UniProtKB/TrEMBL annotation:
Pyrroline-5-carboxylate reductase catalytic N-terminal domain location: 4-90
Keyword Cytoplasm: yes
Binding sites annotated in the UniProt record for NADP(+): 7-12, 63-66
Protein name: Pyrroline-5-carboxylate reductase
A Gene Ontology biological process term: L-proline biosynthetic process
Function: Catalyzes the reduction of 1-pyrroline-5-carboxylate (PCA) to L-proline.
GO molecular function, one term: pyrroline-5-carboxylate reductase activity
Every Pyrroline-5-carboxylate reductase dimerisation domain range: 146-250
Organism: Natronorubrum thiooxidans
Gene: proC
């Protein structure tokens, strides 16, 4: 079993702890100064408010805000045989490697780690087998060049919020048509889940999958005509672009702090 600690038990840190605990293959330690945050994950891992205790693990995951990740790492005494995993948007491995003797791996996960449905990106130049195993236990991941991390941050890191927005719109359409809110929520959420799983398992293009649902003169083609005539796709592209630009801004802020 791999000894793993997570420093910072906010939304993302707690999601990783929960997901990894369900795999049953790791010894987990949660570290946070907030007793309420520790209480929330106490059933999934051991807890501590002492970073020195967390620093004893084979893999140390830093799940704190980008503006404090440097100071947190500076206070950790890690050795060359340990792995430091950072989740901080806009903070490169180069910016952290001089602060620690550990191998630095940068990942961009998302909250679906809690249910083992996470999409994550990881720096291919520094990823270790231990980190690959951790990521595999909580979802799917891709290994990318670090220069692509800003766009990955936008697509899979920020992406769940964009999907929730679209899912909520479908739910509201169902409610407006007379469905009970819980019924509409279930139908919309399961539809997104099923469509995503179809994309992952199919070798067909997304465009071909759309065509497969659109029968001539049927209901779906009528709805798709509305979407094709709108700027909905461009709005999503712009949202991803805005998140990507913010990731770059965070990198500049960290480098000039």
């Amino acid at each position: 079993m791999t000894d793993v600690s997570v420093i910072g038990c906010g939304n993302m840190g707690s999601a990783l702890i929960t997901g990894l605990s369900k795999a049953g293959k790791h010894t987990l330690t949660a570290c946070d100064l907030d007793p309420d945050a520790l209480e929330a994950v106490a059933e999934y891992s051991s807890t501590t408010s002492d970073p020195d205790v967390a620093a004893e693990s084979d893999v140390v995951i830093i799940a704190v805000k980008p503006d404090i990740v440097g100071s947190v790492i500076d206070d950790l005494d890690l050795s060359a045989d340990q792995t430091l995993v950072t989740l901080a948007a806009g903070v490169s491995t180069d910016a952290l490697e001089d602060r620690t003797d550990a191998t630095v791996v940068r990942i961009m996960p998302n909250l679906a780690a809690e249910t083992a449905n996470m999409a994550a990106a990881v720096t291919q130049h520094s990823v270790t087998d231990d980190v690959r195993e951790l990521l595999d236990d909580v979802g799917e991941f891709v290994e990318i060049d670090e220069q692509q991390m800003d766009i990955a941050t936008a697509v899979n890191g920020s992406g769940p919020a964009f999907v929730f927005y679209l899912l909520n719109a479908m739910k509201e359409a169902g409610v407006n048509g007379g469905l009970d809110e819980d019924e509409a929520r279930t139908l919309a959420a399961q539809t997104f889940k099923g469509a995503a799983e179809t994309v992952l398992q199919s070798e067909e293009s997304i465009e071909d999958l759309i065509d497969a649902v659109c029968s001539p003169k049927g209901t779906t083609i009528e709805g798709m005509n509305v979407l094709w005539d709108s700027d909905a796709d461009q709005a999503v592209i712009d949202a991803v672009g805005a998140a990507e630009n913010r990731s770059r801004e965070l990198a500049d802020e960290f480098e000039h702090e």
